[in-house]
Amino acid sequence: MSRKLRTLMAALCALPLAFAAAPPAHAADPTTMTNGFYADPDSSASRWAAANPGDGRAAAINASIANTPMARWFGSWSGAIGTAAGAYAGAADGRDKLPVLVAYNIYNRDYCGGHSAGGAASPSAYADWIARFAGGIAARPAVVILEPDSLGDYGCMNPAQIDEREAMLTNALVQFNRQAPNTWVYMDAGNPRWADAATMARRLHEAGLRQAHGFSLNVSNYITTAENTAYGNAVNNELAARYGYTKPFVVDTSRNGNGSNGEWCNPSGRRIGTPTRTGGGAEMLLWIKTPGESDGNCGVGSGSTAGQFLPEVAYKMIYGY
Q1: Rounded CA gap, 186 and 176, in Å?
Q2: Residue 117: closest CA among 108, 130, 104
Q3: 34 with 97: CB under 8 angstroms?
């Protein structure tokens, strides 16, 4: 074998290693593979409106909330996660719509807040769960919000717990990149009032942001789109300065029509925000939290549990009082 041929063969053999070292990226754009966003016919708002047709609030809740495309949240309550995620993505695909799914089952979930505490029984159990989640979606187009609160919720965690959490998130991204090539995954970055932009940029990067499509803001919160957009841009400035890249971001606008009054847990006087759409200062404005679903046993949801649909809260949120 000539020296030139040996050199060529060596270069060809090295190519897979070079490609493997690079962070994977999705070439497909799920927004161009579908015709609009998927409105979940089995959302808590839809189920309540269908079960209470004679209630004077039902028509408004059905028109203003239930028929708006929103995310569906998946966790331990979802049963066999591969089957559940696959059925939901498949139902949306059958209608040529883009579904938004929220993965919310990380080990030690809401460890410092507590209202939504729970999650997988161990890091290994979570690794299995998220792998099945990604495998259920498979090649169907989808958007996934990965583990809300997971990177903002560090206040009471020790360094070993933080490292453990970041490793779980990094592995989750690996699973989606391997198994769900038409899914855009957004790592959750909390909100502008939780961690400063430099801190959040570091947390995102250390948890594997390079492998994600982008990051999400304001999930289940009330802060204005303008404030979130400014924060998202600031996070990207930090990412560019420190690590040499930026990422698109999405904002949860489901309950930010009146902005925040400083309370995060079922505050009164809030209003639904801009319905799900592309653009608007971010890559997408999404309804990730269902308006009317409780944040926990607090505020105007006193006596409720996190995720419980409260029709009176939903009704008042339509009108902002």
Answers
A1: 11
A2: 108
A3: yes
Q: Which of 229, 270, 268, 272 is nearest to 250 (CA)?
A: 229
Q: What is the largest CA-CA distance in the chain?
A: 85
C-alpha torsion 194→149→173→227, nearest 10: -40
Q: What is the pLDDT of residues 127-166, one digit of tens each?
A: 999 999 999 999 999 999 999 999 987 888 899 999 999 9
Residue 113 CB neighbour total at 10 angstroms: 18
DSSP secondary structure letters along 279-291: -SSSSEEE--SPT
Closest C-alpha among 232, 223, 222 to residue 200: 232
Strands of the 277-278 sheet, one edge to the other: 72-74, 100-103, 142-146, 183-188, 214-217, 249-252, 284-286, 277-278
* Cα–Cα dist 299/313, whole Å: 11
Listing DSSP states for 2-25 in one string gives: -HHHHHHHHHHHHHHHHHHHSPP-
Q: If we measure between CA atoms, which residue out of 56, 38, 52, 61 comes closest to residue 293?
A: 61
For the stretch 250-288, pLDDT in tens is 999 999 999 999 999 999 999 999 998 998 889 999 999
CA 193/CA 223 separation, integer angstroms: 9
Integer Cα distance of 205 and 185 in angstroms = 14
- Non-local CB neighbours of 180 within 8 Å, separated by 6+ positions: 134, 135, 137, 138, 139, 140, 142, 144
Q: Active-site residue 149, yes or no?
A: yes
Which residue out of 149, 188, 252, 295 is catalytically annotated? Answer: 149
> Count of residues for the chain?
321
* Helix then strand then coil, % of the chain, to nearest 5: 40, 10, 45
Q: What is the mean pLDDT of the chain?
A: 91
